[in-house]
Design brief:
single chain; about 210 residues; alpha+beta; 5-stranded mixed beta sheet; 4-stranded antiparallel beta sheet; 11 strands; about 20% helix
Amino acid sequence: MALDQGNAVEPPADLAARKLTLKQIEVDPPWSRIGKTIHDPLFFSDSPGWRFSAKDMPGVLYVGDEAETCFWEVFWDDLMTRPEKDRRLDAAKVAERSVWVLSLPRKLHVVNTLEAATMHELSAPDGTFQGPYINCQRWARALRAHSDKPDGILYGSARRTGHRCLALFEERFKSDLWPTPGPGTPLLRSPELAQVVGKYGLSKVSS
């Protein structure tokens, strides 16, 4: 019987002494991001309401492999935590957000939690990086402190199975590593999201 009982685990006590195998991230096709239009498209969040962010750490930039992946990471609670008949998008929340396409620098090296070998090196069972946010934040803190200095974490989307997300660490970015955002598109005018937005429609009442 497995000791972890299928649960996410905390970083091992000797993580700092282990060698991290870092993956050079694929930059093609470009990655996507959804965020509030009032913020810079390269907004590094320190809000503990996001998976790898906390107030006692520098910010994290979250991107997804497609615009729809980002959509589900942002709007899951508004839709999938409600009865099917009540699933509507908050019109104000949609209106205040834009979609960006990001070109990532080729020098990025990240912890790839989608590879079994990496997870074995970390002594982390599957689901560790998709589990409770407080535990993911412990992992982010431990990996950021590691001497191998990863630029971020590649992990599976918990809300769009089979797709990928990146959490990029603010302190690792310099001029030669900076992602390059394209022009922002208001979410309501995004052709990539027209189908999913049209499926659920908009509600004018925030809840």
